[in-house]
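Appendix C reproduces, verbatim, an entry submitted by the partner laboratory led by Prof. M.T., so that reviewers can inspect both the input and the predicted structure.
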Amino acid sequence: EIAGSPVYVVEAIPAKDLKSDYSKMRLWLHQESFVPLRIDFYGSKGKLVKELKVTKLARQREHWVTKSLVVNNLKKKTRTQISIRNAQFDVPMNDSQFTQRALTES
């Protein structure tokens, strides 16, 4: 349970033939939405190196939205906080917005 919400705890280990920065990840998934509320990232020696924690999850009509989260990099001793103010869904988009050129232009 995280912040009163029931969760599933899942451990993910990359396949031996895949290159990964992490030896495993442990995820706490919100049981209703399956949104990860917490993810622990473990380095090659099995030591916890990074933590992601959702600090606010909200429902917008039929969509679950992570409104804010914090990532603590224990190895680099840094912290990143992300806040989502306005999430929009089912917005019409043109295929030309997803070309290599459109995605690389500033």
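The longest strand covers residues 48-60. Additional entries are available on request from the coordinating office.
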